[in-house]
Amino acid sequence: MKVVIDANVFVSxxxxxxxxxxxxMSWLAGAAEFELVMCPTLLAEVREVLTARPRLRKWITLDxxxxxxxxxxxxxxxxxxxxxxxxxxxxxxxDYLVALARGHxxxxxVSGDNDxxxxxxxxxxxxxxxxxxxxx
Length: 136
Fold this sequence. Notes:
This protein is an alpha/beta fold. It is built from 7 helices and 4 strands, in the order βααβαααβαβα.
C-alpha cells in the first residue's frame, strides 16, 4: 500500500504520543506495512514547522526536531515534486499533496487537516491517523 502522510501528522508524531507517533515510528523502524511517498516540498514543510517555529520548543527541542527530520530524510526515497493541478481542495496549499498522491497512485492520504478530511471529492481517500491505524 502506498501512503502520503501530511506534514501535520509528522509534526504530531514528533511532539505527541498517539496514532501519528505510532504510524511514523513504525515507518522509521522499518516495520510499517506501507510505502511512504514523499517529495522535497513535503519534507521541507515538515522541517520548517519543526525547526523554525519557536512555540514548538515547549514540546520538542530544536536538536530533537532536527534529528527527527534528518531521520526521515535519511530513510525516505524522495520522489519529484508533483506538477501542480487545478485547485482541488478548499485550501489550495494542500493541492500539492493531492497531486503527489495521484501522480504516484497512492492508496490513501493520512492527515489531520480538516480541509482535506472534509474534501468532498476525495481521490484518493483522506483518513485521520487513527482511522489509518485501525485499517480505515
